[in-house]
């Protein structure tokens, strides 16, 4: 037997699988990469050596209204490490700068005060000015242009009014934007609901270029680049993290150059060749990315990428917040078939995009090819309403998979963190 520890919420699930059934384990090298410096030293070194930019402290000179875009509670950016260093660097150049931390919620729910404390630490929450982005609050938003795709670019006014706009984030493979980080802090991070919907239209999500690890020709990426340029995102600090959410690398500087260099680093670490398998067991890497079924679709795409024409996906995801999106849930609950869902989505014009449609589109794409068995704390009803199968454990999920395949010798690919890898065929 081979033993595996699968991230699940704040803990791990131990799984034993017969050795002769293992096709391979797909693991990002980021999880075994051992940096020589501490997290703080890595970030400080990156800020001392910006890519394509002056030092942040130099950029801050004479800039009175500084805004830092920062990821929300759904993203594992270690802001308790990065934010104190960013603040120190800005104040080194301008001790009197008015600094605001703009929490990029996209279309997610508001971040709570406790979640802010968990993310940044009590000292920063008590002493710094926080603004929580609301994609539907017109008083926060201002139109600044038209996206290459044709949608209106409506962005948080606090970012537009800044005389120095900075973003912190992290870079990982992303299932339709290619990679996270960089320009994503602006779109979808601090964009209006209408702008996000236009960017996440079915035409773009359906593009073969809108896949994990792909930037070139990616229509969503093109819109995002335009948005970050239009609001003059002047400087970014993006980190790369391991399975323990610890910083192993950092990149700072000009928004495109620093991001691309970081993406190349991640691509090298996360690129994994597919293995021939009948069953793929995958996860979302634990908390915070496995808080709901909505986010869990990301981990499923890694399994999708490694399976052949037939197979079964076992998704191990705690989903302590349930489905994670009412529209997302109802899209599946109210449909008789997955094919019906996909047909409706594809028929919509980009300006008719509805909330969470993109997640529904990707999940539908997966379900039209493979059965998905969820090992989760979410209720059986929610899982089955969404046209998936529910299992109480990985062991029972494997039994179900064997029944679906009609044999007990199917090869198994184990993917301990599906959101951290780029699967190469």
From TrEMBL:
Domain LarA-like N-terminal per the UniProt entry, residue ranges: 8-213
UniProt-listed Gene3D superfamilies: 3.40.50.11440, 3.90.226.30
Segments forming domain Lactate racemase C-terminal: 273-423
Pfam families according to UniProt: Lar_N, LarA_C
Listed PANTHER family: LAR_N DOMAIN-CONTAINING PROTEIN (PTHR33171), LARA-LIKE N-TERMINAL DOMAIN-CONTAINING PROTEIN (PTHR33171:SF17)
Record-given protein name: Nickel-dependent lactate racemase
GN (gene name): larA
């Amino acid at each position: 037997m081979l033993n595996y520890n699968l991230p699940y919420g704040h803990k791990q699930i131990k799984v034993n699988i017969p050795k002769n059934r293992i096709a391979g384990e797909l693991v990002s090298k980021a999880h075994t990469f051992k940096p020589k410096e501490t997290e703080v030293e890595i970030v400080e070194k990156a800020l001392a050596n910006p890519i394509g930019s002056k030092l942040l402290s130099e950029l801050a000179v004479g800039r009175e209204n500084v805004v830092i875009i920062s990821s929300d509670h759904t993203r594992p950016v270690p802001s308790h490490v990065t934010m104190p260093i960013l603040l120190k660097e800005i104040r080194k150049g301008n001790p009197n700068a008015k600094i605001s931390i703009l929490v990029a919620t996209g279309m997610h729910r508001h971040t709570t005060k406790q979640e802010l404390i968990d993310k940044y630490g009590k000292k920063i929450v008590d002493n710094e000015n926080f603004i929580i982005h609301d994609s539907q609050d017109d008083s926060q938003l201002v139109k600044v242009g038209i996206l290459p795709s044709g949608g209106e670019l409506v962005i948080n006014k606090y970012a537009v009014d800044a005389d120095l706009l900075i973003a912190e984030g992290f870079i990982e493979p992303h299932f339709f934007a290619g990679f996270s980080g960089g320009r994503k802090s602006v779109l979808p991070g601090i964009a209006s609901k209408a702008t996000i919907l236009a960017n996440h239209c079915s035409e773009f999500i359906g593009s073969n270029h809108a896949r994990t690890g792909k930037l070139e020709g990616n229509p969503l990426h093109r819109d995002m680049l335009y948005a970050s340029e239009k609001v003059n995102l002047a400087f970014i600090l993006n980190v790369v993290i391991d399975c323990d959410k610890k910083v192993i690398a950092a990149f700072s500087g000009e928004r495109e150059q620093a991001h691309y260099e970081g993406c190349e680093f991640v691509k090298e670490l996360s690129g994994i060749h597919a293995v021939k398998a009948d069953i793929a067991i995958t996860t979302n890497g634990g908390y915070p990315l496995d808080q709901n079924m909505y986010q869990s679709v990301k981990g499923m795409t890694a399994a999708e990428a490694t399976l052949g024409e037939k197979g079964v996906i076992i998704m191990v995801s705690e989903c302590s917040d349930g489905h994670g999106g009412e529209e997302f849930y109802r899209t599946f609950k109210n449909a008789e078939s997955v094919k019906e869902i996909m047909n409706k989505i594809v028929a919509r014009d980009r300006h008719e995009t509805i909330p969470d449609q993109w997640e529904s589109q990707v999940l539908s794409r997966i379900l039209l090819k493979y059965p998905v068995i969820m090992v989760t704390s979410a209720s059986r009803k929610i899982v089955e309403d969404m046209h998936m199968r529910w299992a109480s454990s990985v062991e029972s999920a494997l039994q179900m998979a064997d029944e679906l395949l009609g044999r007990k010798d199917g090869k198994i690919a184990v993917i301990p963190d599906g959101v951290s890898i780029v699967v190469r065929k």
